[in-house]
Amino acid sequence: MKYLAKDTIxxxxxxxxxxxxxxxxxxxxxxxxxxxxxxxxxxxxxxDDPTESELREALVDLNVxxxxxxxxxxxxxxGSYSKEEWKExxxxxxxxxxxxxxxxxxxxGTPLLSDYLEEGLSMMxxxxxxxxxxxx
Length: 136
Description:
Largest sheet: none
Distance between the termini: 24 Å
Shape: globular
Oligomer: single chain
Helix content: 55-70%
Strand content: under 5%
Order of helices and strands: HHHHHHHH
C-alpha cells in the first residue's frame, strides 16, 4: 500500500463492517422465536445512528490516490484482480473515476465492502488481527 496508512484502512474497514450489518438479511422472519429480542434493533438503521455519516466522511476525506487505492483493494478482495495484478487494478481504478468524485458513493454501495477490504488486505500480507486486538 503506497497511499493509505494502515490505521486509515482499518478505520474504514471497521466503519464499513458496522455499515454492512445495518441491512436486515433477506428472509429474516421478524415474528420468529429464533430472533433474539433486540437483534433487529441492531440491524435496523436509525436516523440518529452516525455509522453511515462516519463512513462517508472517512471516504470523502481521502485524496484521489487514496480512493483509487481503496477501490483497487476492494477489487483485489472481491477476486477481480490478483496480488500480481495490483498495478492493473490501480490503473483501472484511476481510469474508472479519474477525479474520484463518485468513488465514495461507489464504495458505500458495494455489498460486503468490509469483507472485500479484509480479504484484499490479507492478499497483500496485512492482517487486521493486531488492529482489532487493541481496539475491540
